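Batch manifest, entry 17 of 40.
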Amino acid sequence: RRAVASQRRVRGGRAPGMAWAALRPVAKACIGGYLIGLTISDRYFSFAPVHGGSMRPTFEGTTDGREYALVKRSPLYDYSRGEVVILASPVDHQRKTIKRLIGLPGDWVSLPEKEEVRKIPEGHCWVEGDNGSVSRDSRAYGPVPLGLVQGRVTHVVWPPSKMGRVDKRVPSEGRVMPQRNL
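Output type: structure tokens
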């Protein structure tokens, strides 16, 4: 009887608890790695696929998402004019979009195509794509709340042929009139 009972407990030469004992270190390492990775991508940096042609020539923006950028998470209000940023789309908060930061709170932005000058309200910024003819940006939906900005795009990391730093490019002279403290 004892031999039959011990055969029932042992499957494949191991007791049922031995399989979990063997997998436990692997499971703990995977869960720990996932949590560390999640914390790093949420607080410090992450990678973002680039889609669409609104940022040409800075990014090619292939439709299949084969171009990736390194995103450095930054504190709110730690941005300057000319930087490329990633933000939640003001039109669809589920989507992320990459644009160049043109104006900061209090700045005046000139819109030559509309012959208009607009003031950026406090807590907002003005973003535009480098390829204005196809970009849907602040020219279409106005100033963007700074709370939607999620980080600064610092490098192109894929494909290897385009790998490198993303340059800061300030808009042409007279396009943005910075706020002056009087």
